[in-house]
Specification:
With about 400 residues, the chain is mostly helical. The chain contains 18 helices and six strands. Strand 3 and strand 4 form a beta hairpin.
Length: about 400
């Protein structure tokens, strides 16, 4: 006969029964009946057809899962070109936020025009790199950046910036200069609206560039020591001469730098703490240290003679204010001067998940604050980045004497 029914093992019988709808239980007679039914299905070919259908469905599911996996992997594809372009855009976008748009002197108008020109160049470089990227996250963030521009295209057209067919930008420098110089039509204020302050286009562009850098590189923040910023190029005018050193750019601020360093460390310490409801005492200690160091930095920046430091501190204060509700839920109050106060009892009664949401994970409040604090430190020291420092066993900071990365202040 070719097949000995008594030789079929129970495992095979279970498989047949499952596929053909047979019951796995019952008495011995029922079990033999199921086997006979299964054998008949094998003999007449219906079992083979069902197996083909079953494995075809399985292959389809595996293909779909493979597609999802490939998609996930695409989001992790390293893209050095986009990372480099994103670092440059982050730098030039951040620089736009520190300019004085109320000064309509010819010298300052040239300065703004050069900075906007550099920003446009870096924006175009990133859009071109992202268009070629195999990293899906880079593509999505670049698309979002384009959407942000498109939502403001009418405002951009008023100041001499237009969109090309490949989604890059073109800048008419003469039109921009005329806009800045013309106080009657008031479009000079449009330039300030687009490029200055939290929530401006430049601020959003810096945020997108930061996310693209992380996605395209090694998962590092754009302010990390691995982010070797490209030098800002663009057209050069008398304002970019080495002889032109504005007062606010040569003011060093040791006390603010020290306060920024302390806050940077306390943010890192809080992020490294086990933020759970079972560890509230340690979380409270770390959070209290964070508040103390944050308040100290704010007090120092309020007294700083460095306008770049003051501008960055303004962004930092707005970042804190924008999370006022989240702070309130954990017993933390944002005071009128933007310093923080903490109620120990309310803090310990709150759910620590609220703290964790703010101080852990990519693109969290803590990460954004770290970027700002790092920028304040660079302006206060005129170049050094906090990430270039290494902490010794005593909690002090050792500054590398060689191979350190110095940012040139734009």
């Amino acid at each position: 006969m070719g097949i000995n029914l008594n030789g079929l093992n129970s495992g095979m019988a279970d498989t047949y029964s499952a596929l053909l709808g047979g019951s796995g239980g019952g008495d011995s007679a029922g079990g033999m009946g199921s086997l006979l039914s299964d054998y008949a299905a094998i003999k007449n070919g219906s079992y083979g057809k069902m197996m083909k259908t079953y494995y075809a469905k399985l292959e389809k599911q595996e293909a779909e899962e493979s597609g999802k996996t490939s998609s996930n992997k695409a989001g992790k594809v390293k893209d050095n070109a986009s990372a480099s372009a994103a670092a440059s855009l982050y730098r030039s976008a951040s620089a736009l936020g520190s300019l004085n748009y109320d000064d309509r002197s010819e010298k300052n108008i040239d300065k703004i025009t050069d900075s906007v020109s550099t920003f446009v160049k870096d924006y175009n470089s990133l859009m071109k790199s992202a268009a070629k990227s195999e990293n899906s996250t880079v593509q999505k963030q670049a698309e979002s950046l384009y959407d942000t521009y498109y939502a403001n295209y009418k405002l951009f057209s008023k100041i001499g910036i237009t969109m090309n067919s490949d989604r890059t930008l073109s800048l008419d420098k003469d039109a921009l200069k005329n806009t800045l110089a013309d106080t009657e039509k008031g479009h000079g204020g449009t330039v300030k609206t687009l490029f200055s302050g939290v929530g401006s286009f430049a601020d959003k562009a810096a945020d997108r560039a930061s996310q693209i850098y992380r996605a395209a590189g090694d998962g590092e923040a754009v302010t990390s020591s691995k982010a070797k910023y490209a030098g800002v190029g663009g057209s050069s005018s008398s304002t970019s001469s080495t002889k032109d050193k504005d007062k606010d750019k040569i003011v060093t601020d040791a006390s603010t730098a020290s306060a920024a360093n302390a806050l940077y460390k306390s943010i890192e310490n809080l992020g490294a703490t086990d933020i759970t409801n079972d560890n509230k005492e340690n979380v409270y200690k770390a959070f209290s240290a964070f508040i103390k160091d944050y308040n100290e930095l704010i007090k120092n920046t309020d007294k700083s003679a460095n306008s770049n430091v003051a501008n960055q501190a303004s962004y930092l204060k707005n970042l804190v204010s924008n999370n006022k509700s989240a702070f309130s839920r954990m017993g933390v109050t944002v005071n009128s001067d933007k310093t923080l106060s903490i109620d120990e009892e309310k803090f310990k009664d709150s759910d620590m998940s609220s703290v964790k949401n703010l101080f852990s994970g990519a693109y969290s409040f803590a990460e954004k604050m770290t970027d700002r604090v790092n920028t304040i430190y660079r302006y206060a020291t005129q170049g050094d980045a906090l990430n270039n420092k290494t902490y010794n066993n005593n909690g002090g900071v050792s500054v590398p004497t060689t191979d350190s990365i110095l940012d040139t202040i734009v």
